[in-house]
Design goal:
Layout: H1 2-31, H2 36-50, H3 53-66, H4 70-84, H5 86-105, H6 125-137, H7 148-151, H8 153-167, H9 175-189, H10 193-205, H11 210-223, H12 226-245
Helix pairs in contact: 2-3, 2-4, 2-9, 2-11, 3-5, 4-5, 4-9, 6-8, 9-10, 10-12, 11-12
């Protein structure tokens, strides 16, 4: 009887270990996929950038259903103006207003969400922006400018002081969420592959996995267009291949 009991105990322990391992693997697989909120950010940003407002409406509703707050979607559209301009950003906000009004008329109450926290940082905007950019790229920046920054130094100042300080310092969205907005917009407008390459690399630096970025491309294909996804996939493949060779 003791031997039988021991055998049963060993079998039960084996089953427990197996399902524990399976559970851990499933959890690991789940972390390799974008969350519902992250997935919904992609079409909202990309369709706003393209000015495809009729397709944007259901994308916004899906985002709200996925857990994005009103203020988070506002922030997505405010953020993307730095990459595709005020006209697209404002039209996106106007379309968002229509969606909110339509949902309220149906008795649907969407969560407002948090406002941006007051900034308590005595550094200059340039220094704050430089520090934020260094966090994003994962390395310190040199003092000598080159390329477009040397050719037109004022644009480098605007990037540091406004984009990476004024905008990135607003904590309604995380740095990782802002980068997802950014690569969605750049992919949608096209013709900016060097910038897309930089920001997809930043996505890897701020915690996205290669699997998640491939999923990002898949969402572009299904929600935005094959042309945009094909171009983004080509850039992503170059980045991942380059990293494997290092």
């Amino acid at each position: 009887m003791k031997k039988i009991g021991l055998r049963i105990l060993m079998v039960l322990m084996g089953v427990t270990c197996f399902y524990g391992s399976l559970f851990a693997q499933n959890n690991e697989e789940l972390t390799m996929t974008l969350s519902a909120k992250q997935q919904s950010i992609i079409p909202i940003a990309a369709l706003t950038a393209k000015g495809e407002l009729q397709q944007l409406k259901p994308a916004i509703s899906e985002g709200l259903e996925a857990g994005l707050t009103v203020n988070e979607i506002k922030e997505i559209m405010v953020h993307l103006y730095a990459y595709c301009g005020f006209p697209r950003s404002i039209r996106g906000l106007q379309t968002f207003m229509e969606v909110v009004d339509e949902r309220e008329a149906k008795g649907m109450k969407d969560e407002a969400g948090v406002e941006a926290s007051p900034l308590n940082d005595n550094r200059s905007k340039y220094d704050r922006g430089k520090a934020n950019l260094e966090t994003l790229i994962g390395r310190p920046l040199g003092e000598t400018q080159s390329g477009y920054a040397a050719f037109a130094p004022v644009i480098e100042v605007f990037l540091k002081e406004h984009l990476f300080a004024d905008i990135f310092d607003r904590d309604v969205l995380s740095f990782a969420e802002r980068e997802l907005v950014t690569v969605s917009v750049i992919s949608a407008i096209g013709g900016a592959e060097p910038m897309l390459r930089s920001h997809l690399s930043i996505c890897l630096n701020v915690g996205y996995t290669p699997e998640q970025l491939n999923e990002f491309v898949g969402i572009l294909q299904s929600k935005v267009g094959k042309k945009e996804s094909k171009a983004a996939q080509a850039v992503l493949n170059q980045i991942l291949e380059s990293r494997q060779e290092q």
